[in-house]
Write a structure and sequence with these properties.
The chain has about 260 residues and is of the alpha+beta class. The chain folds into two domains: about 120 residues, 2,3-Dihydroxybiphenyl 1,2-Dioxygenase, domain 1 (Roll); about 110 residues, 2,3-Dihydroxybiphenyl 1,2-Dioxygenase, domain 1 (Roll), CATH 3.10.180.10. It contains five helices and 17 strands. About 35% of the residues are buried. It holds the Pfam family Glyoxalase.
Length: about 260
């Protein structure tokens, strides 16, 4: 399926320990790694699933840390016109933290937040390469399988992202005390939006990466120094999910079947 405006096209980890993160995620997801040219003195690390590039990783610099940055996962949303997109985000109550910036040979990106403060990137890719980072139509181990926003304002988020990227609400699920889960459609099941729990400090995106066996993955997380927040929980369709933190403190989630 060809990329279009509003697709998630890339996932990126910033971390305090590149070597340890490579070891952790390689064991967890089977990703393989290669180094790419990044900023001077700060190489960029690409990771692949079955030979297909699905994301990247870069080290936290001292400048990033001084500005409050911590290990974290972020997603890139593809746009047709980054100047128009950034202006629209700002006009709709979002904020621009890094203005449109060139990536030679690839395109332009900008770091933004939605009106509730959830960070993400927008990216105008002019390389002509199709993204395979998000598995849009079928389960693919090592690829992102779901994009989930926990936010202080679900109704506002639905309006904001719908207006900026054309996402629509496909349906909803009653989650009892946790409120309503809003399922997003973009020509395929893109993800969901839900009310953030009171003890969750900020509005933020979480990305679910697919693993072949959820129980073995949980064992790997714990054996490699990560933390799981729950035991595997079954979701509609028969998959199981677990959220957690990697050894450097970046929050992530996994999804997979139980053997």
């Amino acid at each position: 399926m060809a990329d279009k405006h509003g697709d998630f096209t890339w996932y990126e980890l910033t971390t305090s320990d590149v070597a340890a993160a490579q070891d952790f995620y390689s064991a967890l997801t089977g990703w393989t790694w290669e180094e790419s040219e990044g900023q001077p003195g700060m190489p960029y690390h690409l990771f692949s699933a079955d030979g297909i590039q699905v994301g990247g990783m870069l080290p936290l610099t001292e400048e990033m840390k001084a500005n409050g940055a911590q290990p974290a996962w972020m997603g890139y949303v593809g746009v047709d016109d980054i100047g128009k997109s950034v202006a629209g985000i700002s006009a709709a109550g979002g904020s621009i933290h890094i203005p449109p910036t060139d990536i030679p040979g690839i395109g332009q990106f900008a770091m933004v937040t939605d009106p509730a403060g959830a960070y993400f990137y927008v990216m105008q890719d002019t390389s002509g390469e199709e993204s395979h980072s998000f598995a849009k139509t079928e389960p693919r181990v090592g690829h992102c399988a779901w994009n989930e926003l926990m936010t202080s304002d679900p109704a506002g988020a639905l309006a904001f992202y719908g207006g900026q990227f054309g996402w629509t609400k496909a349906s909803e699920m009653d989650m009892g005390p946790m409120g309503t889960y809003h399922l997003l459609d973009h020509g395929y099941g893109l993800g969901g939006i839900m009310q953030k729990p009171d003890d969750f400090p900020i509005s933020a995106w979480t990305f679910y990466f697919r693993v072949p066996d959820i129980d073995k993955a949980v064992e790997t997380i714990r054996a490699k120094g990560g933390q799981t927040l729950t035991d595997p929980m079954e979701i509609p369709g028969g998959d199981f999910t677990v959220g957690g933190f990697d050894p450097q403190g970046a929050h992530f989630s996994i999804i997979g079947t139980r053997s």
